[in-house]
Amino acid sequence: MLNLISAIHGTGVAASTNSYESIATTTVGAGGVSNVTFSSIPGTYKHLQIRILANGSTAGDQDLQVQLNSDTGTNYSYHTLYGNGASAAANAGATQSSMIGGWNFAIGTGSANIYSVAVIDVLEYANTNIYKTIRSLAGQDKNGSGTVGLFSGNWRSTSAVTSIKLYPASGNFNQYSSFALYGVKG
């Protein structure tokens, strides 16, 4: 079902479940981790998709940060649009050191069993003629309250994406957080 939803989100047309190939998955072990990095990504797909179910160690809502190819320079920009059923908000940033791929990823104290979800698409990641763009649908339910958001980001580089680093704005990803990288056929 997630394949169908993400395919419709991406193109307006449902893709076959055979359009996605698993590249790598990771589940965070005891003690947590400060980041999850997918590296040595093959350049043989049209797009990439990352599926996330995560919880973090820091109290309060946190952004999910995304960096490509270990670039920590101010070569990123992002846009966010999110709401909680009662209000909506938007935000943007230019010349940033990362993109935002989701919200509410480090929930921490008082919400230890609540996980956020995100589906992040990295569009035309291997195309060396364009800057790279991500888009994301992310959110969480806090047993009656919660947030859902749309996110986009841009990495001002024409390099093919060979690694993706994901990390919460502060703290760590907790044990059992799960990350899966898929290649999307053209």
Q: So how many helices?
A: 1
Structural class: mainly beta
| CATH fold-level topology | Jelly Rolls
The total domain count is: 1
Output the radius of gyration: 16 Å
Please provide the count of β strands: 12
Shape: globular
- Report the mean per-residue pLDDT as an integer: 87
CATH class: Mainly Beta
Low-confidence stretches: none
The side-by-side strand order for the widest beta sheet comes to 1-12-3-8-9-10-5-6
Q: Per DSSP, what share of the residues sits in E-state strands of 2 or more residues?
A: over 45%
Fraction of residues in H or I helices = under 10%
End-to-end separation in angstroms reads: 20 Å
What is the CATH-assigned architecture?
Answer: Sandwich
What series of H and E elements makes up the topology? HEEEEEEEEEEEE
Tell me about the biggest sheet? Answer: 8 strands, antiparallel
